[in-house]
Amino acid sequence: MAQKKVKIGRKEFDYNLPNNPDINRFIIKVHNETANQRSIYFFTKMEEWILMANDEDCVFMTIYGTRDNGEVLSKAYHKPATSGEIENLSRSMDSEILNKIDCEVKERVPLPNVSHPVFIPNASQERGTNFYVQILKHGNTEFIQLSTSVNNEIKDSTIELQSRRTYKCKLYKVDKHDEQCVLTASSTDLLKTRNCQRDVEKLMEKATSYIQGHSVYSVNYLYRNKPSCHPTILQSKKTGIIAKYLKDNNGDQYSSINNNICGLHFSATPANSSGDLPKGSIFGDYRIMIFPEYLVDGCHLYFADFFCMPRKKHWVTLVLTKAESEEDDFCQNRLVKLDIENNPFFYKVGASYKVTSLDVEILYTEDINLNEMRLKVGFQEKIPQLVKTE
Q1: DSSP-assigned beta bridge partners for residue 336
Q2: What is the dihedral of CA 38, 42, 45, 50, to 10 degrees?
Q3: Nearest CA to 161 among 114, 118, 119, 197?
Q4: What is the pLDDT of residues 104-139, one digit of tens each?
Q5: Which stretches make up the Phytanoyl-CoA hydroxylase-interacting protein-like C-terminal domain (predicted)?
Q6: Are residues 358 and 275 in the same domain?
C-alpha cells in the first residue's frame, strides 16, 4: 500500500493512501487540542503534505480523499502515534464550538440542468479577500471546497447539486496562512434543491400525455378571484395597483418558482367550450377579467408545473414574464419556454386564444394597474357568488 509523509513541525508520520484512482486531492482537518484551534489543509497527491508547526501538538485529524470537484470518496479519522505512523480511529474525536456566521444558502442555476450552492452572509464582509470552506452532504455523498467571497456572496463553488434533494450545508470562515486555513466561525443550514429544467420537461411530457383527447375551450378572458378582504385588494383601493407577491408553496413542493418569484395568479380555464366563466369561485368574491392579449403581449410563456389536487383534479401552471425582466431571467434556465402559437396548453389561434380542458393557471409576474386597465375595452370587475368547498 502506498504511503505519504505527513510533516507537522519537526515530526513526520506515514499515512496509508487509499487505493482509489479517482482520488486526486486530499484535505486534512486538524484539531489542535492544546491551542484549541481547528485548521484545514488542501493538498494534491503529489505535493508535500506539510502542516504548520503550531499544529505539531495536534491530537486528532480527519483526512478526506476527494475528486477535483470536491466530492469526498474516502474519509478516515486518525491521530499521530508515537511509532511515527498514524493510528486509525473509529470516529471523529473533534467537537466544534465556534462563533456563528449569520448567512443563508441558495441554489444558483447558471445553465439549464446545472446548479451550484451560493452562501450569502447577512452581514457585510471585511474588505479584501475572505476565505471560506464549504461542506455539503446528502445521504452518503459529501463535498468539501475552499472558496472566496465576491460582492458579499460566496459563489465560486464548482459543486454540482442534484435536483430534488435536501443538503446539509456547513460553512466555515477561515483565516488563511499559506496552506493552513484556521477555522474562526461556522454556519449550518439546509438547502432544498428544486426541479431542474430536465425535471420540468418530464412533468410537461406527463401533462401532454394526460390531456390527449381532451376538449379545447375558447379563452375570452383571463380571470382572477380573491377575497375582497385580501391585502392586495385592500391596498389596490388606495393605490390603484394590484401588487404582485411571492409565489407560495402550492403545487409540486420541488417547483423552482415556489417562494422564489413574485406574481399574480390568473385562471385560463372557462366553464365551457364557449368560454363562459364559472359563476362562482372557491378563491374569493372579487374577480377581475382581462382580455388575454393585454397580459400576453410582450411576454414570454413558460411551462412550470403539473400536479394533482384533491379529488383527482389536475392542474397545469404556466408563467408569463416580461421579456428581460428579473423573473424572465430566473425562468430561462429552470422552466420550459413555450411557443404561444404552438403548445398544447394555452395558445393563440389567429386573434383568439384556446386552452385545453383541464385547470390551467397562469402566474403573471407583473403588477396590474387597475387605473389603466379600467380604460381598456373589455376589462371587467365583478363580485360573483363565492363557492364553498365541501
Answers
A1: 303
A2: -60
A3: 114
A4: 999 999 999 999 999 988 877 677 778 999 999 999
A5: 199-370
A6: yes
